[in-house]
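Posting this for the archive.
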Amino acid sequence: MPIAFEKVNYIYAPKTPFQYEALKCIDLAIELNKITAIIGPTGSGKSTLVQHLNALLVPTDGTVYILDRELSSNQKNKDLKSLRQRVGLVFQFPEYQLFEETILKDVMFGPLNFKMTEEDARQKSMTALTMVGLDESFYERSPLDISGGQKRRVAIAGILAINPDVLVLDEPTAGLDPQGAKSMMELFVELNRKYKKTILIVTHDMDHVLNYCDNVVVMKKGEVITHQQVNDFFFKGDTVKEIEMALPQRLRVVESLREKGFKLDSKISNLKDLANAIKKEISHE
């Protein structure tokens, strides 16, 4: 069963002066084994939506289907620990959650919490650290004494060590330099392609959506505005312009050059094709 939301509403602080409807009648199905971006302006409900995926939040109304589980406000949601082992959620700036003496101990915390033996937890943690590109030279280092990008990798390794089927990431490249962000996104692609993880990424970076994601969900004021394949979203119709979101940088360059008279295909989607098209245009002048 895919990940699906059926008529889901969520209200913060209901029946109080601070009541706020964060999600409004969400109907949505997320494709498994794909990378799906969840985008939209601040306050659109993105983080509220993904917190339903491992039952940090439960719908005020409606039902959430996650793999073989069903969550709703009308039933007792039992054994959430097993769900949270299958759906790993990495918050924005997860490095603030690092607390153990060493990196290896920090990554082992999750597996131990899920009742693995110490030896199994150690093996899975070493495997997870390898997956995120951190070798054994990092094991005994303090997680507080490494770079921001490395801290982010340690935090993600802590989730991967419990071997979730679904990895949910809230603004995973926030605060990283361009090279660090590129490296992080390439890691998520590898986790999806090589290890068959379903990846959901909350992001404001439209370049990352275009370059690394398969599908995109657009939210606004607590509602899903559109859910499309990435290529359809950027290159078919006027959805991007209608929701007033900035184009990825590469597509903005194409649009700017077209306005200046360059005869470029508006659907050019990679730098090599763009460079060749510009070269061809210039050589004809």
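Residues 250 and 270 are 8 Å apart (CA to CA). The two ends are 56 Å apart (CA to CA).
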